[in-house]
UniProtKB/TrEMBL annotation:
Transmembrane segments: none annotated. It comes from the Eukaryota. GO terms for biological process: proteolysis; secondary metabolic process. Belongs to the peptidase S10 family. This is Serine carboxypeptidase-like 18. One of its GO terms (molecular function) is acyltransferase activity, transferring groups other than amino-acyl groups.
Amino acid sequence: MTHASVHQFYYLLLVTGIILNVSSQVKVVVADTHSPAIKFLPGFPGPLPFRLETGYVGVDKSEDVQLFYYFVESQRKPKEDPVILWMTGGPGCSSFSGLAMGIGPIYFKEVPYDGTLPTLLLNPDAWTKTASMIFLDYPVGTGFSYGRTSIASRTDDNQAAAQAVQFVRKWLVSHPEFLSNPFYVGGDSYAGIFVPIITQMMSNGNEAGLKPSINLKGYIAGNPKTFPAENNFSIPFSHGKGLISDELYESLIRSCGFDLKPDPDSTECTEAFEAYNQCIDGINSFDILDINCPIDLPLRRLLSNENRVFSDRFGETSLSAQSISDCLADAHELFDYWFNDEKVRNALHTRKKTIETWTRCGDVEYDGQIKDVRPYHANLSTKGYRSLIYSGDNDWLVPFQSTQAWIRGLNYSIFDDWRRWIVEDQIAGYTRTYSNKMTFATVKGGSHTAPDNRPAECYAMFERWVSEKPL
């Protein structure tokens, strides 16, 4: 998109009401309800070496939407360090995914579940070493966030974004010591839709004089869902990664066209798509180099085999046996066992009889109306907000090529051209910075949620960027 077309598109969104007018936001806010500092967590050895708080914030006029959050205070200079609002995608995946999978100060020890409470360990690469972070269960129905009525339990892009903005303003009322701290909005995966919309609404509210004002500086998005055509880039990604042959790729491009969609009127296109699907069947779409765990893996039934020795004829552990062991120890599964323990819920100060069974990613009644958020990025750029967009380069779901494409489509000049960035004398990825204060970075070997499997690299990336240093 050219600058002119982007601005025209954005103006059209404004006049048609796709971007919510700030008048719909509540102008008078009151404090939230939060827990005292949590000193201990079941499964973590000893007292927590960081400040953790949880709480609920009621939003909308009747406060029928109760949003649950985890707040981890910066372990460096909390009075000065940035505050980050972080959301996980889905929609419907708890933000505890971020807190305990690469970004936050703890993570699960990945060993097969044996009936005892999963163990938590300290993350040496937590982003909370240099920033305070609010991990928000968002939208309503996610994690411990809930609606008091059936109507309150349903939401859409605009309504949910307005609720998130109201949440932040109410949270700041009860945490006035953070009013002057730089504030950023962040998230990954489907939160790539949430992040720019929420940032735009915060900016609009500040301009309209809503109080308290948010010291908004920018936003962060990891492997972000952004526009519908990003699905087309899974095929060039598959070709570049060696999952399909040159001939198959050329056949797909030739017979199916630029949109790379099955064409029922073309025999070649239909056959090429069938061949393509056969090639990628069984690939872990979140990380093509990782094993592909069955969704319905019967964990409890396999527990009796956890100490069994699997050997091939050379006496070495077989790949299939190792895969089973890795799937059994998957942190995603350990989440459910940990959260559904009564001691854990008591420690987190959750409200009884609101969420019967906690699930990391659950079904939410959410209407994703906004499919393309590129105009939001364009508008935020004109306002001078900083942004960090990063891509784990092993992600098939939102390939780095698609993210590169929409950033390039904003048509901003390059400030710092494509180059490698280094962590501990090793190439951690590649980066490019644009004149609109947008930094794009790949994370070499990173998955769909890159901090999960590249925590040290992602922390270095974040720390440098948030400190306004080159990657």
